[in-house]
Amino acid sequence: MPKIGDIQLPDFPLLLAPMEDVSDPPFRALCKEQGADVVYTEFISSEGLIRDAAKSVMKLDIYEKERPVGIQIFGANLDSMLRSVEIVEASKPDIIDINFGCPVKKVVSKGAGAGILKDIDLMVSLTKAMVEHTKLPVTVKTRLGWDENSIKIVEVAERLQDVGCKSIAIHGRTRAQMYKGNADWKPIAEVKNNPRMHIPVFGNGDIDSPEAAMKMRDEYGLDGAMIGRASIGNPWFFRQVKHFFETGTHLTPPTMEERVNAAKRHLQMSIDWKGEILGVFETRRHYTNYFKGIPNFKPYRMKMVTSDASEDVFAAFEEVLEKFGDHQFSL
What we know:
This protein is an alpha/beta fold. The chain contains 15 helices and eleven strands.
């Protein structure tokens, strides 16, 4: 069974990927309840942390019920990254994860995220310095390479391991691909099959069904799956995958009551955590998936995503339950 440092994980753990404006404490709590084995915070700017930027500092909030939890940071400046490690440690996470994979232009243009894939030596030296600066296990999330002509992920993973990285999660696309095309898991399997590798190798990208997760486990032989977009508005995905592993059958989709209750809890936890305005606004992206597969749903969805007052959104949830409560829909 894989371990991250001293953290023992189950066979083929399911990890909630760090996602900007998605994997906040309310959503992590829902995913944890549904079987996520490790959860990660949204990625946090090291520069924002050392400047004490409110949004960055708020992302450090973690709760006992979500352990083991990793706080993910990004940056390309050594001094800023080391200072941010000290700030992160005060939140007492179980893992510090470094983002070497975010493809977004505003991150890449500063040489951070996937931008660092252009400078592998810097990537390795930053990781080494951070490992030496903390007693917490340091892990890395990255991509296959900058573009298809610069894929050296087997060598990169080995070098990161050699400087003390405790696990690596690899998204099966290059930075040039962004989120287009299909994720390629073969190079990730090559990392895992390198006889010199002994840390866990987790796969990420296009794990959008229980069958895909099983394929990653059985055909590609990886140590676990990091779930991203498939979980948005669908925290049940983790439970569905585990049920499929155990039985070979698909779990019955959540009832309408379960969907509405999850959406209500999500919204209420978001309001409790970040206030009415942000709580209402930042939960909107989940509603399409919470209520996926329901015919003629657009009028209700429009109420949910355009209402600024939480009571109007809660009222829309009740309307949905009243109209569709007796029906069963697939997610």
